[in-house]
Design goal:
alpha/beta; Rossmann fold; 6-stranded mixed sheet; 5-stranded antiparallel sheet; 16 helices; 24 strands; Bact_Antivir_Def_Nuclease; AAA+ ATPase domain-containing protein; ATP binding
Length: about 550
């Protein structure tokens, strides 16, 4: 069985006056929207529907298939109310239905507040229920219409991967890493998916589990190769490992229980975290395939436009297996759009008015990080606002971008790659060697084939933050920028801008400049970049000309 939809009324951000309905795909659902629109509440309701006794089957890391509501939402003192309602609609499929679901397939829940096992005591008196931060916010299944009147959850496997999975092992000293015995089939499938998604050549020799007392909920998954061990895995590798292991756990559960397998649901918060755009797309492909083949659902939240674009390419009315549920606040209340256009999603995420002529034809632009995207957006605003693009989220080094360009040119046919200015001084032969099979060519090379386009570099020859730091260091305290509204709002003058008292002393010149820029408010960063582009000797003309030329090439393939 699977969940077709759920409706929520009077819980957290959801209004008490009317139900808000969220449709789910039979296999995969991406829940997107700006912050504070109720996405986590949806995950909490979905995770609350069922669990599985550990004796029946467990996650490959030993966890039960169970989601505690407190993993996702805590009691909000004085604000969470009783009497909220949620309804989850189940429908049958090839797996059949579990027991004790109402005949109409709709299981209801009501919100309630329960006392803590050890209530908070102040002045020798326990706090009142609604004043105690230790009180428990719960969603209780309704007894009515169930064949056997009960407030118990369904016997149905659920599993949740929250942001605690991203707790970096490198920042704790109390981790424990151990190898586990895996079935050959599990390790082989993990190895294949892991290497393909991250485009890693090394063979995975073993898969280990990582725990930490500092992050009790985290159960990391790290690989051992010939080059490095479990604790040397990056945050992205660890994150991917946990997601792969969770999906493979449902597959293993089906193998264990056989015909008694009735599906299940895997919930992932911010699925794209720590993964570069291509890895996000490939992870979606893997999860969609394994969930469809095994017979469970995946529901994730995401803010990644590149991932939503990949998913939207497969969304259509004749495909009930896949949904994008987009959350918006309209006149103060939450609305959910099912499978909106990418143009509508991008406009809302960027807080822009939707262009009625907008479609899917905007080229994608891959860049190294947020600072580079900020510089590009400022140049775009000043020089080519008539050329809309889709900026791809993520932080990925220039060598990895070139590897991606070389190995996956067909998938990037509607894309441009713009590298940081300091990369432009790298040896041309070194760059060319990384693009031997690619449609991307060095800016000094002539574009000959119709599908070829130039690799682009942002203006300049040094790291962006270093150029900014040196420019403002030589400007005096009467510089016009300090009269800008955002600078005045944040009380920025020469002394506060250039103050480096808290800067770590063991950093080199480039890292000092990055530290200096990173800790500025976003509005101040934008003002610094725009003023620098307008008043410093930044050679933007050649970049603008080359960008327009290559934009016209790739828009045919977007």
């Amino acid at each position: 069985m699977h969940i077709e939809s759920l409706s929520i009324k009077g819980i957290r951000a959801f209004p008490r006056q009317n139900d808000v309905t969220v449709e789910l795909g039979e296999v995969f659902t991406a829940i997107a929207g700006l912050n504070g629109t109720g996405k986590s509440t949806v995950l909490a309701v979905l995770g609350n529907v069922g669990n599985l006794k550990k004796g029946t089957g467990a996650h490959l890391n030993g966890d039960p298939f169970r989601v505690e509501l407190s993993e996702i939402i805590k009691y909000d003192v004085g604000r969470d109310l009783t009497g909220g309602k949620a309804e989850v609609k189940f429908v049958t499929d090839n797996n059949g239905m579990v027991e004790n679901i109402p005949a109409n397939g709709v299981l209801g829940f009501r919100s309630s507040i329960h006392p803590a096992n050890e209530p908070t005591v102040k002045k020798d008196k326990p706090l009142k229920l609604r004043e105690d931060p230790r009180s428990r916010f719960r969603l209780i299944p309704e007894r009515k219409n169930r064949p056997i009147p009960s407030e118990a959850k369904l016997e149905w496997p659920t599993y949740y991967l929250g942001l605690s999975r991203l707790y970096p092992v490198g920042e704790t000293e109390d981790y424990s890493a151990k190898s586990s015995k895996w079935e050959k089939e599990v390790l082989q499938e993990y190895n294949s998916a892991y290497r393909k998604i991250l485009d890693i050549r090394q063979h995975v020799r073993d898969l280990g589990l990582i725990t930490s007392e500092s992050a009790a909920r985290k159960k990391g998954a790290g690989v051992t190769t010939d080059q490095y061990g479990v604790v040397a895995n990056s945050a992205g590798q660890d994150n991917l490992g946990q997601i792969l292991l969770a999906a493979l756990s449902f597959k293993a559960l089906k193998k264990t229980v056989g015909k008694d397998f009735k599906g299940g649901i895997l919930l992932i918060d911010e699925i794209e975290a720590t993964l570069h755009p291509l890895a996000q797309s490939r992870l979606f492909d893997f999860l969609y395939r394994i969930a469809k083949d095994t017979g469970f659902q995946v529901v994730c939240t995401t803010h990644s436009l590149s991932l939503l674009q990949r998913i939207s390419e497969n969304v259509h009315r004749q495909n009930p297996t896949l949904k994008i549920s987009y959350f918006r606040r309209v006149a103060g209340e939450i609305e959910v759009d099912s499978n909106p256009s990418m143009a509508a999603i991008e406009a809302d995420m960027n807080k822009q008015i939707l262009d009625p002529d907008a479609g899917y034809s905007y080229p994608r632009v891959f860049m190294e990080d947020d600072v580079a995207r900020l510089v590009f957006q400022s140049i775009q605003e000043m020089h080519f606002p008539d050329l809309p693009v889709r900026l791809v989220d993520g932080h990925i080094g220039w060598t990895a971008l070139l590897t991606m360009a070389n190995e996956f040119s067909p998938e990037l046919s509607g894309s441009l790659i713009i590298l940081d200015p300091d990369v432009s001084v790298e040896d041309k032969e070194k760059i060319d060697s990384k693009l031997e099979k690619s449609v991307f060519k060095h800016p000094e090379d002539e574009v000959i084939r119709p599908e070829d386009r130039n690799l682009l570099f942002l203006p300049g020859t040094e790291p962006i933050e270093k150029m900014l730091f040196e420019f403002y260091k030589q400007e005096d305290e009467d510089c016009e920028i300090y009269r800008a509204e955002d600078m005045r709002h944040f009380q920025v003058d020469y002394q506060t801008l250039m103050n480096d008292d808290k800067m770590p002393k063991n950093l080199d010149e480039i890292k000092q400049a990055k530290w200096w820029f990173d800790f500025k408010p976003d509005a101040v960063k934008r003002e610094l970049v725009k003023f620098w582009l307008s008043n410093a000797d930044v050679p933007t003309e050649a970049f603008v000309e080359l960008f327009r030329k290559n934009y016209n090439i790739v828009k045919r393939f977007a």
